[in-house]
Amino acid sequence: MSHLFSRLALLLVLLFLAAPAVQAQKLEEKVATHLLKNGLKLLLVERPESPTVAAYITIGVGSVHETSQNRGVAHLLEHMLFKGTETIGTRDFRQEKPLLEEIEKVGSRLDRLKNQPGADPQEIAALQQQLDRLQAKHGELVIKDEFSRIYAEHGGAGFNAFTSKDLTTYLVSLPANKLELWAAVESDRMQSAVLREFYTEREVVMEERRRSYETSPRGLLYENLLATAFTMHPYRNPIIGWMSDLENLTLEETRDFFQRYYAPVNTVIALVGDIDTPAAIAMVERYFGNIPAGTPVPPVVAVEPPQVAEKRIHVRFDAEPQLSIAFHKPTLPAKEDYVFDLIDLILGQGRTSRLYRALVVEKGLATSVSTSSAPGSRFPNLFVISAVPRFPHTPQEVEAAIYEELERLIREPVQPEELEQVRTRLRTDRLRFLRGNDGLARMLTYYETIAGDWRYVVTYDEQVAALTAADVQDVARRFFTPTNRTVAILTRGDN
């Protein structure tokens, strides 16, 4: 009886795996593509099973595209684009507009004065008081969070945005019969966003930086790791920007960045759900088709030079010790990037991973250990191993134990059973993600932007299936070297 039960259980697992696999095979047939004359790319998938639509707008601009003149602007714009337009978020834009102009005039003068050596403190204080009065008066004309209210009142959910090194995405899920509302709202935001409350929002972002990096041991360690691992590539800079960047970022620079790049030529839209493809295309053409194309995001020409020696940084902070080790690696679509996806699961994902079993379970050296690729995917990046030592063990003990596991990966071929397990987990995790409308919409816009073709999703499993244990050994041998690594350790005092 137990043997029969086991066979039935296995059959259910196989059926679970087969259903998403069939979906993935048919995905290329199901995705409709449409290119508007202004350069906007539209990807559509009809899924009538539920009367909802996931709508993702991805702009191919992130913090990696910033310069020393405007670092932090992409993340700040993410905040600013929730403030509304000339028709949303205001009680009367005709009254508001001259007040916004006066606020910018006073705010810009105040910023310049603060940066002048020997500036009169009394003049600075007077300008600050004037700015505060203007902003208080302006607040009477502002309707807070109106985007969110509009979507919520019409059944929208998950209205949000995120900025990464490589891109910026705005997303929402809503009833299928409200898709035209989405088109009207988002095309209005792309054309006529008003960057109101700039100076107060800049202060909000500065406080976010203090909380998430300057007073957070994990954030502080990660920020210093990137700044040490990368010598010249803009991946070394934090998405939120350095504090001096934020203090000097102007409304004029922020508006210029928005008007140049948050435009159709840099935009990919995915609509996944209960849609009629021809009708959806016509609707997007109607609302987005006449928006000026904008300026293509310029290429990032900086190339990180090969690392020729180990780098180390010791961060002092009043917190429990932490450790991060980073190795430079290629990005997609390089074969090595697929191999690192396997290595990520083998070494550091979950309680069955090698590092967790060795460091946490067997040796008791650490309370946690994990692996990841960071900080972006558009350009060559890092494979990062992070761990928290278990008292009284030191970061040095944990570091040595990590290297033992890396040497084992180089020395011993991964057994067929373990390799197949991680392949299966990769496949099922990705296919489970693709089964949801939000997951598919996110992947379509992400890979169309990062890889230049959303079909990366379709070919991924085929590429991973072709990898061997020898490939894992080869990549581990070539990249897990002392000269290719950066080590960041956070401890209290002089430890």
Helix and strand layout, with pairings?
Blueprint lengths: L1 H29 E5 L5 E6 L5 E8 L13 H8 L12 H22 L6 H19 L6 H8 L3 E7 L4 E8 L3 H14 L5 H17 L2 H13 L13 H6 L2 H11 L5 E7 L3 H12 L22 E6 L5 E8 L5 H14 L5 H9 L3 E9 L6 E9 L5 H17 L4 H20 L1 H14 L5 H10 L3 H11 L5 E7 L4
Parallel strand pairs: 2-6, 7-11
Antiparallel strand pairs: 1-2, 3-5, 3-6, 4-5, 8-10, 8-11, 9-10
Helix pairs in contact: 1-15, 2-10, 3-4, 6-11, 12-15, 12-18, 13-14, 14-18
Shape: globular
**End-to-end span in angstroms?**
60 Å
Instruction: Give the helix/strand class.
Output: alpha+beta
Mean pLDDT comes to 93
Strand content: 15-25%
Helix-strand pattern: HEEEHHHHEEHHHHHEHEEHHEEHHHHHE
Low-confidence residue ranges: 1-23
Main beta-sheet strand count, sense and barrel state: 6 strands, mixed
Output the strand order for the largest sheet. 1-2-6-3-5-4
* Structure annotation, total helices: 18
**Strand segment count:** 11
* Rg: 25 Å
Helix content: 40-55%
Please tell me about this protein's structure.
It is globular, with a radius of gyration of 25 Å. A six-stranded mixed beta sheet has the order 1-2-6-3-5-4, with helices on both faces. A five-stranded mixed beta sheet has the order 7-11-8-10-9, with helices on both faces. Mean pLDDT is 93; it is low at 1-23. By secondary structure, it is of the alpha+beta class. It has helices at residues 2-30, 73-80, 93-114, 121-139, 146-153, 179-192, 198-214, 217-229, 243-248, 251-261, 277-288, 335-348, 354-362, 395-411, 416-435, 437-450, 456-465, 469-479; strands spanning 31-35, 41-46, 52-59, 157-163, 168-175, 267-273, 311-316, 322-329, 366-374, 381-389, 485-491.
